[in-house]
C-alpha cells in the first residue's frame, strides 16, 4: 500500500481520535501558571540583570529546563514537518493545527516562568533559541509512517522528561506547570499511538519496519540545540532522563501496547524488522544497565570522598 493510500485509509481514524481528544482535553491559560509577583525589571528598564545567585534551581534541573524549553520553542519546524509528512487536507490538517495551538502554550508558559523566577540566564536562553531556530529543519522524519511513529515516541519521552524536570526543580509552582504540560503531551502521545496501532492493522510489514527504524535511530527533537550533548549528559547523570528510563518507560510500554512481539501474520519484511528491533533493544538494555552501574559507582565514590 502506497503512502497516499495509507493516508486515506487512516483519515477516519484521525477524525475519530480528534473527537476523542477534544472530549478529554482540558483548556488552560498559560498566565495562570506564572508567579508574576516574583518578577522584577532587568537593567534595560532600570532594574538589575540576571546573576547566578538569582536561581535556586540545581544545575541538572536548570539544564533540563533549558533543553525542554528550547525543544518546545522549535514548534514552527515541527509544524512544517507534520504538514510535509501528513498534508493539510481534511482531518489530518485539522489535527495538525489543533496540535500546534496546544503545543504553543508550552513554550510561552515555560519562558514566562523561567524569566519571572530568574531560574535561568535570559540572555543565554535567547541566544540559544536564536541559534536553534535559525539552524533549519528539526531532525524528524518527513515520511508519513516514520513521522507518526517518531511523534508517538517523542511525545511519551517529552511527557516523562517534563514530569521529572518538574520534580527536580524543587519548586511547587514549577512542578505544577510541568505536570500540566506533561498532561498535554500524554494526550498527544495517545493520539499518535492510536494511529500507529491502526497502521499496524492496515500495513503491518511497512509499519513494523518504520517502528524498527525509528526506534533504532531515535533522537530527541532538541538534539540540534547548542550544548545539547553536555546538558543531556548532565540530565542523564541526575536521573531526570537517561537510557534506563528511555528503555523502560518509553520504548517498552509503547511497544507492548502495539503488541510488536506478539503479532502474527507478518511477511518477510515485517519479521526482519522485528528481529532488527529485538536485537537493538537487547543492546540498548545492556547499555542502560551499564550506564546506571557507572552512575552508582560515581555516586559511591563521591559519598566516600565527601567530608563527614
Automatic annotation (TrEMBL):
Signal sequence segment: none
Assembly information from the UniProt record: Homodimer.
InterPro entries per UniProt: Fatty_acid_desaturase-2, Ferritin-like_SF, RNR-like
Cofactor: Fe(2+)
Family: Belongs to the fatty acid desaturase type 2 family.
Keyword rRNA processing found: no
Protein name as annotated: Acyl-ACP desaturase
Top-level lineage group: Bacteria
Amino acid at each position: 500500500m502506497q503512502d497516499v493510500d495509507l493516508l486515506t485509509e487512516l483519515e477516519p481514524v484521525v477524525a475519530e481520535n480528534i473527537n476523542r481528544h477534544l472530549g478529554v482535553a482540558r483548556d488552560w491559560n498559560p498566565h495562570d501558571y506564572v508567579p508574576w509577583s516574583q518578577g522584577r525589571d532587568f537593567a534595560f528598564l532600570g532594574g538589575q540583570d540576571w546573576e547566578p545567585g538569582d536561581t535556586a534551581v540545581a544545575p541538572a534541573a536548570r539544564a533540563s529546563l533549558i533543553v525542554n524549553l528550547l525543544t518546545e520553542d522549535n514548534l514552527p519546524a515541527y509544524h512544517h514537518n507534520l504538514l510535509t509528512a501528513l498534508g493539510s487536507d481534511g482531518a489530518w490538517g485539522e489535527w495538525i493545527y489543533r496540535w500546534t495551538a496546544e503545543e504553543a502554550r508550552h513554550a510561552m508558559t515555560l519562558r514566562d516562568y523561567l524569566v519571572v523566577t530568574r531560574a535561568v540566564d535570559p540572555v543565554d536562553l535567547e541566544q540559544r533559541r536564536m541559534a536553534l531556530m535559525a539552524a533549519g529543519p528539526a531532525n524528524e522524519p518527513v515520511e508519513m509512517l516514520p513521522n507518526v511513529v517518531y511523534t508517538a515516541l517523542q511525545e511519551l519521552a517529552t511527557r516523562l522528561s517534563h514530569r521529572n524536570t518538574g520534580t527536580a526543580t524543587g519548586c511547587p509552582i514549577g512542578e505544577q506547570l510541568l505536570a500540566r504540560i506533561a498532561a498535554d503531551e500524554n494526550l498527544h502521545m495517545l493520539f499518535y499511538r492510536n494511529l500507529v496501532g491502526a497502521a499496524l492493522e492496515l500495513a503491518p510489514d511497512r509499519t513494523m519496519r518504520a517502528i524498527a527504524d525509528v526506534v533504532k535511530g531515535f533522537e530527541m527533537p532538541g538534539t540540534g540545540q547548542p550544548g545539547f550533548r553536555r546538558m543531556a549528559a548532565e540530565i542523564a547523570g541526575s536521573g531526570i532522563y537517561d537510557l534506563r528510563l528511555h528503555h523502560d518507560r518509553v520504548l517498552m510500554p509503547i511497544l507492548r501496547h502495539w503488541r510488536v512481539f506478539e503479532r502474527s501474520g507478518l511477511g518477510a519484511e515485517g519479521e526482519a524488522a522485528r528481529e532488527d528491533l529485538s536485537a537493538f533493544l537487547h543492546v540498548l538494555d545492556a547499555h542502560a544497565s551499564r550506564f546506571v552501574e557507572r552512575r552508582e559507582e560515581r555516586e559511591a565514590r563521591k559519598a566516600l570522598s565527601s567530608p563527614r
